Structure formats: C-alpha cells, structure tokens
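Final report, closing paragraph on structural work. Over the funding period we assembled a curated collection of sequence-structure pairs, and we close with a single example.
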Amino acid sequence: MSTRITKESARQLLRDRFGHQEFRRGQWEALDAVLSGRDALVVMPTGSGKSLIYQLPALLLPGLTIVVSPLIALMKDQHDKLSAQGVSSVAMHSHLSTSETREAHRQIKEGEGEILYLTPERFKDRAFFQHLLSRPIALFVVDEAHCVSQWGHDFRPDYLSLGGISKRLGRPPILALTATATAHVQGDIIRQLGMNDPHVTITGFARPNLRFEVIRTVNDQIKDTTLRHALREFEGPGVIYVATVKESER
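Its predicted structure, as stored:
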C-alpha cells in the first residue's frame, strides 16, 4: 500500500489542516517513507512533531490509522487537538462511560474516524477486535515505542503482542515513534514489532530549550529550603519528583 505525493502537496496540506508553514527536521523523510508503504522508526525529541508523521498520512491513506499509546492522558490530548483541527479521531480507553464506549464501538464498526487511539490491552476486547478486522487498516502506529522494549518484557506484556496483532490486521506499514531509545532499544523495537527493513530517522535527543542544573544538599531541611526558593523564584508550570506517595502529600 502506498500513496505517492510530492513534498509541495504535503506542505500545502500541512498549512491548510495543521497550520504549520514548513516541515521540521526529519518529518518529511519519515512521512514520505510511510506514504510509500515502508515501515519506519522515528527517534525525535519530545515536542519536535512526531505525531504529525502519522496524522498527515491519515488524511491521505485509504483506511484507518491505528495509534497504540501507553497513557490515557496522551490519547485524550491528541484526540482533543485533532478535533480542534477538524480531523476525525476515536479514543478508546477506560475513562469512557458505558454510552461513550458503545459510541466508540459504533464508530469503528460503521467506518467512521480517520485515527483510532487505544492501549495495547484494548486488543484483547474480542468484540472490538472484530470491528477492527472489518476495517482496512492504513497504518499501525506505536507511540512511545520504547515501551515495547522497556515495558513489554514484564510490566505490560501486551506490548510484545503488537507485532502479531499487526499481522492479524493485514500487516499495514508499522510506524514506531519515540523520544528516547538507545541503539539496543531501537533494535529490540524493530525485532519485537517485526518491522521489515524500516526507514530510520534519528534527529538526536538534545532539547535546546531545556537547562539542567544539579543543586547538592546535605539534609532534608536544606532540600526543603532550596525547593521553597525555587517555587518562589520560577514562574510557569513545573514537575517535582519525590520518592514516595506520602512525600508527595506533604
């Protein structure tokens, strides 16, 4: 399965539907591979536009684009953004009400939606999987693909079944996306998903908009004082990591 499209035509769609004037580094090469029917592994930093590499082809390829995502929050965020851009998508997750789940089943069964978001565990829903078997699948996307290697062997073993699932769905092109993967993890992703001679795009891991600083403290009192100072001085959102749930509730 392939759809040949010029870079200029893709750029026009990029402007019209997604509001961007130009492709970022690495996007077009990976996107072109996907449109040509090739498997592709993409390693690009967070915020560099990996999602566009399947979202734009989803508007061009005949059939449904399936996106396997590890977290409900990620699915909801992408689903909401696509809705705002006028792209039809369906998100299947455990936070849906009974009526919402029933509606999602109906949409997939009746051929609605261009992109479907779900977790790897959702494929065990037999009725839902039968609906998928009735749809032509254009592209099988594994977002946060490092989870295949880092979680699949113990924490979430359903990740290891994704290669077999793609075959049951007619073996569409596989697109694996991640922001963090060593050479070993990249090789494991390719093996576990059964990717065939994939196009590989690696733009690096550096985030020039981030600054890292280590502040050494000798006890909890100084650590707390340093944290309070940081909270007063720095504006905008932030994340504080702690070792235990109890500590997070202080």
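Residues 96 and 102 are 9 Å apart (CA to CA). The mean pLDDT is 90. We thank the funder for supporting this effort.
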